[in-house]
Amino acid sequence: MADKKFQVALDLFTIEDAMRILEQVGEYVDIIEVGTPLMVAEGARAVRTIKDAYPTKTVFADIKVMDGGGEVPKSCIQAGCDMFSVLCASDDATLRAAIELAHANDVMVLADMCNVKNMEERAAQVAPMGPDYLCCHVGFDRQATGADPVEELKRLSGVSTPKAIAGGIKLSTFKAAVESEAQDIISGGAIFNAEKPGEVARQMREILDAYNASH
Prior knowledge:
The chain has ten helices and eight strands. The protein is α/β, with parallel strands linked by helices.
């Protein structure tokens, strides 16, 4: 089985802030997420800047495509992203177009289940389309309700597509996320809002490495 991955979500608003955090945490992560706020604020330039600075890392553009699956991601692909996101709540035609575009350009697709009500049914529909990851994502505005992404991820156990998990994962819950079915564990605010982001990322890396070494 392939080693599980550690992804940092840079849900920030400037490239400068993103680079400042990456200086502290970049060595510990496998995947660098150009978060949706950063994509909105800075556009594909953020993807290009981060990929140029970290060419060996997987750079993920969290653009959450909802329409124009074959068109909207093009600027991020041209900027050098290795993966982008499309919403499972979008139309099947959008999903298929996004996946086709990505794979034609040797780019991966993360299909995001954010705010999908019947995750089991939708996962069974989306998985055959060929996304590289299905993401169980407890959105930012839902996290205050106490929704647990580790528990919600169990609803995707019926599909074999590799899974990602996101939504308020912090150091105290990172081990449970690593021990779940997820192949990609995503943490954002718990890292970049920390007093010492590098220390939090280092401890998360140690948890992940210990798991990978024992499996």
